[in-house]
Structure formats: structure tokens, C-alpha cells
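Tutorial, part two.
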Amino acid sequence: MSVLELTWVRGSVVTDRRRCGKPTCRYAEAGAAGHESVVLSYSQAGRTHFLMLPAEQVAAVRAATERYRKRKAQLEAVANRRLAELVAALAPRSGRA
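Running the prediction step on this input gives:
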């Protein structure tokens, strides 16, 4: 599947900064800013994973994660309305014998 064909993706596009392992690199020192890379951060089986994103795919993946969050919010709103309707229909009402 091409990244451009993504409809929804669960996760967040974030900038990851990490210390370098090369002793002569300016980012090897503790407290240094670190090398930056744009990644998709997602959780799976209770663990957080990072997937490095090529620069040309960042916008498409970011858009897919935003669509996922919007769709998830819409689904939650519908599910909450349906739950409220079910509770109202099945909950015992006061004043009934």
C-alpha cells in the first residue's frame, strides 16, 4: 500500500531527538539537542513504537492521523448518543408499578 493511499492511521507524527553514538558528534554529549527525525509514534500491545518517516511522506501520514482522530471523535459522539438512548429506553422509571 502506498503511503499516499492511506485513509486513516492511528498514531501521532512527532519529531524525535536522540543522542548520537559517535563520540566525535556534537550530539553525543548528555544534554545536547540531538539528531532530529520525524516519526510516526504509535502504541501496540502496550508498547510505544517509532516508525521513521521519509520527508516526502510526512504530510500524507500527518493528514491520515488527523483524519483518524476526527473519525474517532465522530464515532465516539455517535456511540455516546446511542448509549444514552438505550439507557433511557431500558432504565427503570420512577412511578411505575
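The beta strands are 12-18, 35-44, 47-52. In part three we will examine how such features are distributed along the chain.
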